[in-house]
Design goal:
Elements: H1 35-67, H2 96-104, H3 108-111, E1 119-123, H4 129-141, E2 145-148, H5 155-164, E3 169-176, E4 179-187, E5 193-202, E6 220-224, H6 229-239, E7 252-259, E8 262-272, E9 278-282, E10 286-295, E11 306-309, H7 312-315
Length: about 325
């Protein structure tokens, strides 16, 4: 060995360095033809990346601790939500035009306490067991709601009967291959009507660590992230399903959380463990909604006038563009 060369393994100069996976700069695991070998090398590469990321994280934490108060503020991680494209229809709570529209829209009688919510929940024609159970559980979440199973009766014939019997809203649960896959919400007597795609339906027995059956108390309602004019209208539709004055003694909460235009519904009961700690139990059911269209007036699939229709190829050009 020449001058400046490192210790040669086996010459007694010291223990051999720990083996470290070294990949060429242009290395690609996909170039390995053997499937088992390719999978093994991929796992080693992922493990090495995790170690390097953890070491970098520890190094940065030590640097912050050494600087103390002089440490620079933590960088805010980039997410799809905080990189959202600005929507010009975002609602300003102090906007006079928005206040005027709210005072004169179809939901004004409810918010002025002139009407009491009365909901009819029905299904597509001849529903199967899972859809039937979902409707029954949904009726325990929404106070003053009644379940009716259709037997070939058209919605256009149901709506006049609902109006005559003082129902304020109609909910239709559609199914495909015995699984609930759609929800139509129509506000009576003058609309509007919203069509949602439904997914990720979980009944009470399918939820882990669920609480006891819900009581008949009127729940609180939480609406999150309905920020645009369209989202504001959808949020008001959901709010109009529940009576005004929640019974806090029941400690039940119905949450409609909008995230990336997906509306997640959860039904919880909260429990006070101490003065500072609060625990929650999910009661179920749970489901996810995706708005497909908003139609003026009551349900009319042929001649209805649509305020908004989701067009995937035109509207979903950017992952950071949201409509609700």
């Amino acid at each position: 060995a020449g001058e400046g060369s490192g210790p040669v393994p086996g010459d007694g100069a010291g223990p051999p360095a720990p083996e470290r996976v070294l990949f060429p700069p242009t290395f690609s695991v996909s170039e390995i033809k053997n499937k088992q070998r390719r999978h093994f090398m991929f796992l080693r590469w992922k493990q090495q990346q995790r170690k390097e990321k953890l070491a970098l994280k520890k190094k940065r934490r030590k640097e912050r601790e050494a600087l103390g108060d002089k440490a620079p503020p933590k960088a805010v991680p980039k997410t799809i939500e905080n990189q959202r494209v600005y929507d010009e229809t975002t609602v300003d709570p102090n906007d006079e035009e928005v206040a005027f529209d709210e005072a004169t829209d179809e939901f004004a009688p409810y918010f002025n306490r002139q009407t009491v919510p009365k909901i009819l929940i029905t299904t597509s024609d001849r529903p199967r067991g899972r859809t039937v159970r979902f409707c029954e559980q949904l009726a325990t979440v929404i106070p003053n709601s009644h379940v009716y199973y259709r037997r070939g009766l058209a919605l256009k014939r149901i709506i006049p009967q609902c109006i005559a019997r003082d129902f304020t809203d109609l909910i239709v649960i559609n199914e495909d291959r015995k699984i609930p896959n759609g929800l139509v919400l129509s506000h009576l007597p003058d609309g509007p009507t919203a069509h949602f795609r439904m997914s990720s339906v979980r009944l009470r027995k399918e939820i882990k660590r669920k609480g006891k059956e819900p009581t008949e108390h009127v729940p609180e309602v939480i609406l999150n992230n309905f920020t645009t004019r369209l989202g504001h209208s959808i949020g008001r539709m959901f709010a109009a399903l529940f009576p005004h004055d929640p019974q806090f003694i029941g400690r039940q909460v119905a949450t409609f959380h909008n995230q990336r235009d997906y509306i997640f519904f959860r039904f919880h009961r909260y429990i006070f463990k101490s003065e500072k700690k609060v625990g929650i139990q999910e009661l179920g059911p749970r489901f996810t909604l995706k708005l497909r269209s908003l139609q003026k007036g009551t349900f009319d699939s042929k001649f209805g006038e649509y305020e908004w229709i989701h067009k995937r190829r035109e509207m979903d050009t950017s992952r950071r563009k949201f409509h609700l």
